[in-house]
From TrEMBL:
Name listed for the protein in its UniProt record: ATP-dependent RNA helicase
Family label: Belongs to the DEAD box helicase family.
Signal peptide, first to last residue: none
Domain Helicase ATP-binding: 61-147
Entry note about domains: The Q motif is unique to and characteristic of the DEAD box family of RNA helicases and controls ATP binding and hydrolysis.
PROSITE patterns recorded: HELICASE_ATP_BIND_1, Q_MOTIF
Single GO MF annotation: hydrolase activity
Keywords per UniProt: ATP-binding, Helicase, Hydrolase, Nucleotide-binding, RNA-binding
Residue positions of motif Q motif: 30-58
Taxonomic lineage from the root: Eukaryota, Metazoa, Chordata, Craniata, Vertebrata
Function: RNA helicase.
Cited Gene3D superfamilies: P-loop containing nucleotide triphosphate hydrolases (3.40.50.300)
E.C. no: 3.6.4.13
Amino acid sequence: MSAESEIRDNGPEGMEPDGIIESNWSEIVDSFDEMVLHETLLRGIYAYGFEKPSAIQQRAIIPCIKGYDVIAQAQSGTGKTATFAISILQQIDVELKGTQALVLAPTRELAQQIQKVVLALGDYMGASCYACIGGTNIRSESSPHHH
């Protein structure tokens, strides 16, 4: 595949990307098991209801974990949030209690949705996640949200 290759891929059922996927990353991973993720993270992924990675997850999780800069643009419902959540959860050390990742979201609703996804996927790991939202009472932000 060339550095700026374009391929057409329908991905798993119900997760078809709309149109063309542009990528300079040639590795496509067909299953979560092949991604060599932490066992507790895999349990969270399957418990969340994922069976097979979506087209965007097949291409973006590994480069994210490896520390590459990744820009993933796709329609709603294609698995973008889970892509970066899985990548973050794979890299954190739950024994360290300090902040290890920061996700910025443009709306309160999206921030809360991201928090729910991270907590669900990281449930078996014991991961913590806080949604810090401007304009809210500090007390509501300071209580830990932990599964």
